[in-house]
Design brief:
about 220 residues, 11-stranded mixed sheet, 3-stranded mixed sheet, 4 helices
């Protein structure tokens, strides 16, 4: 059975390490904040100038002035820091963010990402995605494997405007987990969602992927 959005977020949270500074993209990646392992100290950073994002607020704790880059109301953990957007991007561009988790509309087989616009549709701009994929040490994508129309999102070459080239380290979808093989410059299938087969992944993926059937495990849910 394909993973739910929360299960994808939980699997993405398994990539976190103690002491990491992490940027979460809008949409599904924000759910990762709910699944930080107990006892692990992770600092969540937002492009609009907050280091130390806490859990989403309950109704009685909402502060309309405290938002993340996606304009969602958030909380701040003890020890959080507020700063200017320019300082925030200096952190990103300076390589001080350990990992970011983003959504995507397309990922190419070489690790290119398109996640900021669809031609002809109104968008507010690229935001910080271009800086994140260029400046962060590890870039993870959390997304559905296919579009709502059923089109493959893992493709030989992106047809949508690019956010970055050859920058994605890992892709976690509702069907599987893929890790970039730097030598081959192709994604390698490492885990399958429970009940999902390699054949199903291949059928729903137009990108070339590497598969060693003996090395593929099942995502822990």
């Amino acid at each position: 059975m394909p993973l739910s959005r929360d299960q994808i977020a939980r699997r993405a949270a398994a990539e976190l390490e103690d002491g990491f500074v992490v940027n979460l993209g809008i949409g599904m990646p924000t759910l990762v904040a709910n699944y930080i392992p107990d006892g692990m100290d992770v600092w969540l950073q937002s492009e609009n100038g907050l280091l130390g994002i806490g859990p989403f607020p309950t109704d009685d704790a909402v502060d309309a002035d405290l938002i993340n880059a996606g304009k969602q109301t958030v909380t701040a953990r003890q020890g959080a820091s507020y700063f200017s957007s320019s300082d925030s991007f200096a952190m990103i561009r300076g390589g001080h963010i350990d990992m970011c988790i983003l959504g995507a509309m397309q990922i190419s087989q070489e690790g290119d990402i398109a996640n900021w616009m669809i031609p002809g549709k109104m968008v507010k701009g690229m935001g910080g995605a271009m800086d994140l994929v260029a400046g962060v040490k590890k870039v993870v994508v959390a997304m559905e494997h296919n579009s709502r129309k059923g089109d493959a999102k893992l493709v030989p070459e992106c047809t949508l405007p690019l956010t970055g080239k050859q920058c994605i380290d890992m892709v976690i979808t509702d069907l599987c987990v893929l890790v970039m093989d730097e030598g081959a410059q192709r994604f390698r299938l490492t885990e399958l969602a429970p009940g999902v087969t390699i054949e199903e992944v291949r059928e729903k993926t137009t990108a070339e992927i590497l598969v060693d059937e003996k090395a593929v495990s099942t995502v822990e849910v």
